[in-house]
Amino acid sequence: MNTSRHVHDSFTTAYKDARGRTVDAGGVTYAYRELGPKGGIPVVFFVHLAATLDNWDPRIIDPIAKGRHVIAFDNRGVGASTGRVPDSVEAMADDAYTFITALGFDKVDIFSFSLGGMIAQALVVKHPELVRKLVLTGTGPRGGKDIDKVASTTYWDILRATLTRSDPKEFLFFNRNATGKPAARAFVDRLEERTSDRDLQIKTRAFQTQLKAIKKWGRSAPDDLSKITQPTLIANGDNDRMVPSILSEDLHRRIKNSRLIIYPDSGHGGIFQYHETFAPAAVEFLAR
């Protein structure tokens, strides 16, 4: 059965070539992709607002998959996964738990970005035994200041992008300056590297429900993050308009012994703009 782990080159380390798979659990068919060498503790990727499997930057995922079993998935109601998106971050975390345990894992590392980072926090608070290491990027804590304003910023930038016929992520994730604009275009181009077996787009209703969940998360009482004892890496740009950068500092203060990286002259997508330095830092953190 497990012959593949003995054949050295039988796995892919390129996200653009990762095979699409599904698993049924709790009445939902979850769509996911896996890559990298099987065996050991996998790294599960939790994606951002409005995103599907096609939204992971290959320059971040591929370096991690060189040495680790990597799994990216669509949560309930997102992309090719069935069911309806729940209207709370905590329920999304319950679905993520269902997905991970359905694959037979009792210990994982989590790499998360934005909304994915909120889901990851809710998951680790409820199921601390499941998570060994935690990477939280472009995100903020439950009850974090101004998280409830994400929706208005998002709608405004979608409008700006529509008017200029560009991808909303160019506005939402990057500064509109001489550094940010080319970084934004390069990022959007990298997301197009996978040409076959692309994921389904997120539905408008699902996107709106995610925004409602984020607003609720921002207006809820904070979780006690001092309970998080997992090694945690926190990263963001210094000018995040979506999930204010100050919230990354807030997370760092509240999660003991966490490590914080703030990239200069960059926004919500700071880790993508600085992928050449961030990817090795993430690889090193997860391998330690």
Automatic annotation (TrEMBL):
Q: Which Pfam families is this protein grouped with? A: Abhydrolase_1 (PF00561)
| Annotated Gene3D superfamilies | alpha/beta hydrolase
Query: InterPro entries in the record, alphabetically?
Result: AB_hydrolase (IPR050471), AB_hydrolase_1 (IPR000073), AB_hydrolase_fold (IPR029058)
GO molecular function, a single term: catalytic activity
Identify the residues that the record assigns to the AB hydrolase-1 domain, covering every copy. 43-272
PANTHER family given in the database record? AB HYDROLASE-1 DOMAIN-CONTAINING PROTEIN, HYDROLASE, ALPHA/BETA FOLD FAMILY PROTEIN
Q: Tell me the protein's name.
A: Pimeloyl-ACP methyl ester carboxylesterase
